[in-house]
Amino acid sequence: LLFVPYYSKGNPKVILNPKTDIQEQLKTSNTTYMVKKAIDLQGKAISIPEGSVIEFKRKGTLSNGMVSGNGTTLKGKVKLGCELAGTYTNTEIPVSWLCINDRKILSQQIASIFNLKQKTTVNVDKDITLDGTRKDVGYVAFSGNGRIRNSCSYRVKGDVLLKDVTISDFETYRELFLDMREISCPVNVDIEGLTFDGNWNVSRFLYCPYQNFSEQSNIIITGSNFTRVKNYVIQFRPACTGRITDNIIEDIGTDVFSNVVGLHLGDSDDDSGRMCAQSFVIEDNVFKNFLVPFSNVDDGREAHALLIYGHGNEIKNNTVSDMHTKEGRGSDTGRD
């Protein structure tokens, strides 16, 4: 069969035929490829020619495979049941474009977006439920006013953006929600307006161990609520700076056998700055209802609202209350 593009204003256009090999129809760059019917890729990966557009019309869908973009634009009534790779001009992909009725497929789709070569935000414009598995990703970027239930946990190699979303209803235990132990350079963590409820099934919201970077990562966390986390909320130990303001961190800790910490920043206060938290503004936060480990011996168990190693930090107008032990014997104020 010969597929001849027709022309209107802008790019030449090709209507994709679901009954013929799709890759064979993707021949020319700077072309609009129109998806008007359901197309099953049958587990195959297709590559889009450079600078082209995939435009979805009527009941058009792409599913069961991978679409590798090359400066590709997704347009129209987009319905995707497949993974993405390569590069796209879309800086944001709404979850309403994805396979929201299958939590396993949706979880893998989102992970594939977070591995695209350019950073692309997933806009949570509808409430979704994921499968709770761990995903290895280049970055994490969620925005929107929707709720993510039973979210995956993410081993992140790059930046984190969480804006206005609600993340809750974790069905099973996971040690970490954001595992940043594999970052290889300083990163940006930008969290604004987040509501995070660990449902006592998340041990740490964000964890990044010591990394010997000479440059600082930038951490901004504002106007967010964190609750029902088992041990640590934020533990970021490499050199860092930033602003943590107007957050509520409450109901932290579930037993007396592990450390309980709200914010742990930096890992040293030496002059090199390689592990220091420096020039932070930490202001107007509320730390409430922490379960404090209790022991009659010095066994290393600790509880802290704030645990900061560094210098030049401005810490003011924060409220710490209801730090208590399981037995109700009062706060371990010497370590708060």
Secondary-structure topology with pairs:
Elements: E1 13-15, H1 22-25, E2 32-35, E3 38-40, E4 45-47, E5 53-56, E6 61-76, E7 80-88, E8 92-94, H2 103-113, E9 121-123, E10 128-129, E11 134-137, E12 140-143, E13 147-149, E14 153-156, E15 160-163, E16 166-168, E17 174-179, E18 188-192, E19 195-197, E20 202-208, E21 217-222, E22 225-229, E23 232-236, E24 240-245, E25 248-252, E26 260-265, E27 277-278, E28 281-283, E29 286-291, E30 303-308, E31 310-311, E32 314-316, E33 319-324
Parallel strand pairs: 1-2, 2-5, 3-6, 4-6, 5-6, 6-7, 8-9, 9-12, 10-13, 11-14, 12-15, 13-16, 14-17, 15-18, 16-19, 17-20, 18-21, 19-22, 20-23, 21-24, 22-25, 23-26, 24-28, 25-29, 26-30, 27-31, 28-32, 29-33
**Helix count, DSSP H or I runs of 4 or more residues:** 2
- The spatial strand order of the largest sheet comes to 8-9-12-15-18-21-24-28-32
Can you give the mean pLDDT? 90
Largest sheet properties: 9 strands, parallel
The proportion of strand residues reads: over 45%
Overall body shape? elongated
The strand count comes to 33
Structure notes:
The chain is mainly β and 336 residues long. 4% of the residues lie in helices and 46% in strands. The chain has 2 helices and 33 strands. The chain has a 9-stranded parallel β-sheet, with no helix packed on it. An 8-stranded parallel β-sheet has the order 10-13-16-19-22-25-29-33, with no helix packed on it. Strands 1, 2, 3, 4, 5, 6 and 7 form a 7-stranded parallel β-sheet that branches. Helix 1 links the parallel strand 1 and strand 2.
